Amino acid sequence: MNTRSFVLLLVVIAAATSCVSRQPNTLAENKAIVLRSEAELWSRGNLAVVDELYSPDFVCHFIVGPDWVGLEGIKREVSSHRASFPDWNEHVDDIIAEGDRVVIRFTSTGTHGGAFQGIAPTGKKVSIREVAIYRLADGKIVEQWGQPDIFGMQQQLRASESARR
């Protein structure tokens, strides 16, 4: 066996046994990961997908409040949010991907069934616009920057709270 054949054989064996580093995800794969997170995690509350979709090193830089860190951080935030809005749903209006980034613009809706930011449950259905930027690596969401219309949500909830008085 000549050197070239031997090297080719090593490359084939390494690829077959996953010893060669994985190629970066395609833009379509990255979009699919983010869309799955929106549909299964946020809109259905399926925490089991966190381990599949998110890196253990995940960090969310949220516009308000502290960063969410790690798999337990994202699970805690989703659980808490869904306790406040049990029927929370996120509908992606736009999705754009380039390199390792995916950006979505989406509309979120939910019924205020539990306390949220010190506001007692109102039973009010709210709707807000949001933007999120995701960074992915090796098929997992590694980082997120979240920009929800928290002010708009608070206005909707406080209007309901005032009307009940």
Give the topology.
Blueprint (H helix, E strand, L loop, with lengths): L2 H14 L10 H16 L7 H4 E9 L5 E2 H15 L4 E10 L2 E11 L13 E13 L2 E9 L1 H15 L1
Parallel strand pairs: 1-6
Antiparallel strand pairs: 1-2, 3-4, 4-5, 5-6
Concise description?
The chain is α+β, with helices and mostly antiparallel strands and 165 residues long. It has helices at residues 3-16, 27-42, 50-53, 70-84, 150-164; strands spanning 54-62, 68-69, 89-98, 101-111, 125-137, 140-148.
Overview of the structural elements:
There is one protein chain. The protein is of the alpha+beta class and 165 residues long. The protein is built from 5 helices and 6 strands; from the N terminus they run H-H-H-E-E-H-E-E-E-E-H. Helix content is 39%, strand content 33%. The model is unreliable at 16-21 (pLDDT under 50). The radius of gyration is 21 Å and the shape is globular. It starts with a helix and ends with a helix. The longest helix is centred in the first third of the chain and has 16 residues, at 27-42. It has one domain (24-164): Roll (Nuclear Transport Factor 2, Chain: A). Strands 2-1-6-5-4-3 form a 6-stranded mixed β-sheet.
